[in-house]
Amino acid sequence: MAEQTNNRRRKSNQPLDPTYGHLQPQATEMEKAVLGALMIDKDAYAIVCEILRPESFYEPRNQMVYAAIRDLSMEEKPVDMLTVTDQLAKSGNLEQVGGPGYIAELSSGVATSANIEYHANVIAQKSLARQLISFSSMIQTKAFDETIDVEDLMQEAEGSLFELSQHNMKKDYTAIDPVIAQAVKGIQDAAKNTDGLTGVSTGYYKLDDITSGWQASDLVIIAGRPAMGKTSFALSMAKNIAADLRQPMAFFSLEMSNVQLVNRLISNACEIQGSKILNGQLQRDEWERLDKNINQLLGAPLYVDDTPGLSVFELRTKARRLVREHGIKLIMIDYLQLMNANGMRFSSRQEEVSTISRSLKGLAKELNIPILALSQLNRGVESREGLEGKRPQLSDLRESGAIEQDADMVLFVHRPEYYHIYQDDNGRDLHGMAQIIIAKHRKGATGDVLLTFRGEFTRFENPEEKTIDNRAPMGGGEIIGSKLNGDDNPMMPPLPDGPLPF
Question: What pTM was computed for the model?
Answer without folding.
Answer: 0.63
